[in-house]
Amino acid sequence: MGARGILLVDHGSRNAAANESLEAIADLVREKLGEGALVGFAHMELAPPGIAEGLAQLVRAGAMEIVVVPYFLAAGRHSTEDIPRMVDEAMRAHPEVSHGVAPPLGVDALLAELVIRRAGGEST
Amino acid sequence: MGARGILLVDHGSRNAAANESLEAIADLVREKLGEGALVGFAHMELAPPGIAEGLAQLVRAGAMEIVVVPYFLAAGRHSTEDIPRMVDEAMRAHPEVSHGVAPPLGVDALLAELVIRRAGGEST
Lengths: 124, 124
Hints:
The structure is a homodimer.
Chain A: E1 4-10, H1 16-33, E2 38-43, H2 51-60, E3 65-70, H3 77-91, E4 98-101, H4 109-119
Parallel strand pairs in A: 1-2, 1-3, 3-4
Helix pairs in contact in A: 2-3
């Protein structure tokens, strides 16, 4: 098993700030995982880099398996159908690299903690 | 200063599972804050309860100040314009209760941690 890459994928927006926030999260993930971690980001549509480009960058950087994380709060057609289909299609160009698509962010205590933080932090 | 209420507000969806995930997060926030915490949820549109109804429920439960947390990953028109306007309008019916609108979830290390968890948890 070779190096593992993570690709964050959101919908993509015409709003540059929204696209930049995905890049900022990818930077935080890379920092947390430590030096040399293969972490990228891509948008389904409306802004570059697209999914095929994001995957290709991770492969060029040496990823031998890639996990795609749909950066969506709730499960829906984008995270369960569109992204897996687009990833499968793009990965035909990289048959030597294994890949999978994770669940979206979904329901998690970390999100409850973040809500409390945004509300003014009664609990932490 | 009286009891403080938190209202989570997302866009709302025709997909019941998406709406239920907001309710599940509200439940987690309530658990974290402990017994008697005033935590509600509402959708901007497409599904009940709406913002005015969610706010009224918190007021009836005894909230004297309410913080609305836009449950969106990135800042955009909904979180910075539409929700504050809808909240201001609805709160005219409750002039005795103070209110504010928090920033959306945005960029935070907790979200990076959640991405790593969904990707299969290399770091924790």
